[in-house]
Design brief:
The protein is α/β, with parallel strands linked by helices. It is 36% helix and 24% strand. It contains ten helices and twelve strands. Strands 6-9-10-3-11-12 form a six-stranded mixed sheet, sandwiched between helices. The relative contact order is 0.17.
Length: 280
């Protein structure tokens, strides 16, 4: 079964061509004396789910922060569909077609589903006075229902406050928002953390739908079973370095991924080669 899934994923990547939607070249970021990213490079292709793995402090969140515009890299290049870009803010990231779902979801519990879906992207309707605009709530509700329906997200009413939704539903709304606005790239930071089995399955299904819509997905997860369930390839980080890249996951086990993350599968010579002369 796993071999069949891997073959199908590889076929999808081959069919869409080998031009990356995202290229990260020699990304560097330091916080004082702490070098969080020490020359990280990888590529992400359209219609691909790339796992970004590593233990706490490996540099995963730093990479996502630089791509999402919440942090500025100290060095390196970010290339989107062949064009080098500078991402200085979340607004600029969204302008390049990058959407991010962080662990805290960035949802407002007191607001309803529709308002959260269109947060900072409200549909405005002009009034007789040019300087006055009202939110077109009817259009926003209709569009929200269409988005949720397309993604098969089951919400009783888009007028419901977020505080009334389950953890899985809240996560689905956050991912659905990313799907709706992420034209090219979606970054997912632990999207299924603290969810039950059924709710996790819903989120993984949304990730598959992102892939089917030709969006490139960068997934951070500590759940190796989830990684093997949806990822096409993985990149492993350790102490701010890229220490492994696995392009064929068909015969890989969760234990082997954990070994790669912890460095069990890296010999001293390999570690020295990856460490760029620094102790790890």
């Amino acid at each position: 079964m796993r071999d069949t899934m891997a073959d199908a994923r590889q076929t999808t990547i081959d069919e869409i061509g080998r031009r990356p939607v995202l290229e990260v070249h020699d990304l560097k970021k330091s916080y004082g004396a702490v070098r969080a990213a020490r020359g990280i490079s990888f590529e992400l292709y359209p219609g691909e789910v790339l796992g970004l793995l590593g233990d706490n402090g490996a540099g995963k969140s730093t990479v996502v922060g630089c791509l999402a515009g919440s942090q500025r890299p100290d060095g390196g290049r970010i290339v989107i569909e062949g064009d080098e870009v500078s991402i200085g803010s979340p607004q600029e990231a969204r302008g390049h077609g990058i959407e991010t779902v962080f662990q805290d979801l960035a949802l407002v519990d007191s607001l309803d589903v529709t308002t959260n879906m269109f947060l900072n992207r409200e549909i405005l309707r002009p009034r007789p006075w040019r300087w006055v605009h009202w939110m077109d709530r009817r259009a926003m509700r209709s569009e929200t229902q269409a988005i949720l329906g397309r993604l098969h997200i089951n919400i009783t009413s888009v007028r419901q406050p977020m505080s009334q939704l389950s953890g899985g539903q809240r996560q689905s709304v956050a991912v659905g928002r990313a799907v709706a606005w992420g034209r090219r790239i979606v970054l997912l930071d632990e999207p299924a953390a603290a969810l039950g089995v059924e709710q996790t399955a819903l989120v993984l299904d949304l990730i598959r739908r992102l892939r089917s819509e030709n969006v490139g997905v960068l997934l951070i997860s500590h759940n190796m079973h989830d990684v093997l369930e949806v990822c096409d390839r993985v990149v492993v980080l350790r102490h701010g370095l890229k220490v492994a890249q696995i392009d064929d996951l068909s015969d890989v086990t969760p234990r082997q991924l954990v070994d790669a993350i912890t460095g069990v599968t890296l010999g001293e010579k390999d570690l020295a080669r990856h460490s760029d002369g620094d102790e790890v």
